[in-house]
Amino acid sequence: TCQCNWPECYHVWMRRVAVIAAHVIALGLTVLISLLSRPGTSEYLKCLSLLTILYLLCLTEGILLFSPEGTPFYLKARKGKVRLHWFIQALVLLAAATGMGFMVASNNVSERPHLATWHSMLGVGTLTTTVLQAACGICLLFPKLLKLSPPRLKLYHATCGLVVYLLAIVTVVSAMFSDWFQATVKGGMWYAFPLLPMFPALVVMNQITNAYLLRKKITT
User: Fold this and answer.
1) What is the pLDDT of residue 219?
2) TM segments (predicted)?
3) Who wins on pLDDT, 145 or 127?
4) 191: which residues sit within 8 A by CB, 6+ positions away?
């Protein structure tokens, strides 16, 4: 039961509902795009399915894992959450490299130019920032070598993570404006697809800003 007054309880429950909705939307959008990439559809659409599973599901769960409002991974100890976070991010990097390799090979076979669209350039930028973010995470293991306090390193890591997540959302949404996707998803249903990723993005942004970026003082 909630021990706070009614307005505080209301905001707590609203935050919990928002986090649960972010989980559901990330999983639901992944399933929907996976169904659209059934056998016989465009190879490019299958790439979108992989990248959607990668960024909208793995990245979302990897960040919301630390949400105080609720996560499907019930781990009380922060150490266990950190280990699971590392595992999920390793899957992110592996899937990103696999998806990028598949897209390059597909373009070579079909003799299509590389980096010819905004989506492809955003994808390369997102993959690059993901690798840099992973390197930033590794630095958290060796704070003394960088002569920075752990709280400050965590702030940098969280800030970079937010940038990576927002880039990933923009990359996925940009693919939904391509001709092949609009030919597959038609009518009013198409308008929902670019909007759906925005809600988990807002939840993730709120979590990171509340946990790190809004702190007035950082322990040095």
Assistant:
1) 45
2) 17-36, 48-66, 86-106, 118-143, 155-177, 189-214
3) 127
4) none
